[in-house]
Specification:
The complex is a heterodimer of chains A (108) and B (122). With 108 residues, chain A is mostly beta strands. Chain A is built from no helices and 11 strands. The chains are: A mainly beta (108), B mainly beta (122).
């Protein structure tokens, strides 16, 4: 199974900061990567798919990039509502799916 | 509007079988384009994909749990049912259902149900 490793595991930042979260696949997955945002007590919400395509309704301050094994999720100017946990997910081996372990973004 | 909602017991005992139901609305389980997935998340931990079921009744299971999982659907009730046998305290988690396209190049989950917390304890 493809292993997805996110870094960092947690991150402290302030409103207005630019932050980057990394997701690395144990083998190449082309651009078959999705990102999700999860707030406490809520279900994950799809942010992005195909590594860099923004889901409808997601603010443009979120940007995804990468292909192969290395991917990033960048939030250009943090808003209060962005403090959450972020997960990456590969679907290269669809229907078998794996997720990263998550990155918790906290207020500094 | 597409919605999914999980239901089932909040508490099960070790060795028991868990049965969860996902009731969907806004799309049909016979829709050629969409399937339903089960995913779980232990408290404070990562997401783990469990199983899919597709419109043609094809199923796919996480190989690490395959022997314990069964997924089925009732189109007339718009429900997908997951059973997991021989429950253990490590299976304590929030269980989610979500919609997934049948196209491999579109293997993301959207939307998700609200989730249901299942605790395994004697």
């Amino acid at each position: 199974a493809i292993r997805m490793t996110q870094s960092p595991s947690s991150l402290s930042a302030s409103t207005g900061d630019r932050v980057t979260i990394t997701c690395r696949a144990s083998q190449g997955i082309s651009s078959y990567l999705a990102w999700y945002q999860q707030k406490p007590g809520k279900a994950p919400k799809l942010l992005m798919y195909a590594a860099s395509t923004l889901q409808s309704g997601v603010p443009s301050r979120f940007r995804g990039s990468g292909s192969g094994t290395d991917f990033t999720l960048t939030i250009s100017s943090l808003q209060s509502e962005d403090f959450a946990t972020y997960f990456c997910q590969q679907y290269y081996t669809y229907p078998a799916i794996t997720f990263g372990q998550g990155t918790r973004l906290e207020i500094k | 509007q597409v919605t999914l909602k999980e239901s089932g017991p909040a508490l099960v005992k070790p060795t028991e079988t868990l049965t969860l139901t996902c009731t969907v609305s806004g799309f049909s389980l016979s829709n050629a384009g969409m399937g339903v997935t089960w995913i779980r998340q232990p408290p404070g931990k990562a997401l783990e994909w469990l199983a899919h079921i597709f419109p043609n009744d094809e199923k796919s299971y996480n190989t690490s749990l395959k022997n314990r999982l069964t997924v089925s659907k009732d189109i007339s009730k718009s429900q997908v049912v997951l059973t997991m046998t021989n429950m253990d305290p490590v299976d304590t988690a929030t269980y989610y259902c979500a919609r997934i396209p049948v196209v491999a190049a579109e293997g993301w989950f959207d939307p998700w149900g609200q989730g249901t917390l299942v605790t395994v304890s004697s």
